[in-house]
Amino acid sequence: MQIAGDMVRGQPRTADLIASTLVGEIRSGRIAVDEVLPSERDLCARFEASRPTVREALSQLQLRGYLNAGGGKRPRASRPSLSSIFRGAGDVIRDILGDTESAAHLEQMRHFIETGAVREAAIRADHLQIAQIRSALEDSFRTIGTSGFPESDIAFHRAIVAVVGNPIILTLHDLFVSDLLARRPPEENRLKHDRLVYDEHRQIYEAVLGNDVIGATDVMDRHLARSYRYRLELPKSLPGQAEV
């Protein structure tokens, strides 16, 4: 099978056409999910293309979620999921912006998602959703001062975001909030920190329970802003200069 060369005006490049062909075969089932893909050599022969062109096509497949590779194993066909797409995008964001800047942008995204979600929760959370938020709050209380608190912290916020009922927003939250928390430095006084977070969670829950839209949004806004600023490292002092 021969595909025309690259850079023909108004026409797709060879790598794009190879990638589209392979994606079509995975979607149709001609190449089964988890099946080992043909070798680069075989693909070069099939498409009469150079090895760099085939590698570019395979990179496109991986970026689009149709290829699993790594660990020294042969690439296998896969189907994209929201999780795999957003995780790959997150890695690219960090490569472009760097850890510090990308973390700040992700924190801002989290802020928008969660303040909007808590507003929706205060307006329309049903009995089951309220019970799930309450259960997550109780887990937070039980894990204060323990290594299990960060997980219960995530679960509380997730229960609020889940009220929106948007799988894209929930997947973004699952991926990036977990990643942000994993990058947090250890707390010097875990018990004090956990008690503060729990009390803010309690205020958020009470506002949601009382359909207090403004109160729920304000408390969540302060909670997330405080949490982010609390984790920022202080600038280094000059040698011999006491910290203020």
Describe the structure in your own words.
This protein is mainly alpha-helical and 244 residues long. It has 2 domains: 14-80, Winged helix-like DNA-binding domain superfamily/Winged helix DNA-binding domain (Arc Repressor Mutant, subunit A), CATH 1.10.10; 98-231, Four Helix Bundle (Hemerythrin (Met), subunit A), CATH 1.20.120.530. 66% of the residues lie in helices and 4% in strands. It contains 10 helices and 2 strands, in the order H-H-H-E-E-H-H-H-H-H-H-H. It has a two-stranded antiparallel ribbon with strand order 1-2. Helix 4 (82-97) packs across helix 8 (167-182) and helix 5 crosses helix 8 (167-182). Mean pLDDT is 86; it is low at 6-10.
List keywords for this structure.
2 domains, mainly alpha, 4% strand, two-stranded antiparallel ribbon, 244 residues, 66% helix, 2 strands, Four Helix Bundle (Hemerythrin (Met), subunit A), single chain, Arc Repressor Mutant, subunit A
Structure at a glance:
This protein has 244 residues and is mainly alpha-helical. It has helices at residues 14-28, 40-47, 51-63, 82-97, 99-124, 127-142, 149-161, 167-182, 190-209, 213-231, and strands spanning 67-70, 73-77.
Break the fold down into its secondary structure elements and pairings.
Elements: H1 14-28, H2 40-47, H3 51-63, E1 67-70, E2 73-77, H4 82-97, H5 99-124, H6 127-142, H7 149-161, H8 167-182, H9 190-209, H10 213-231
Antiparallel strand pairs: 1-2
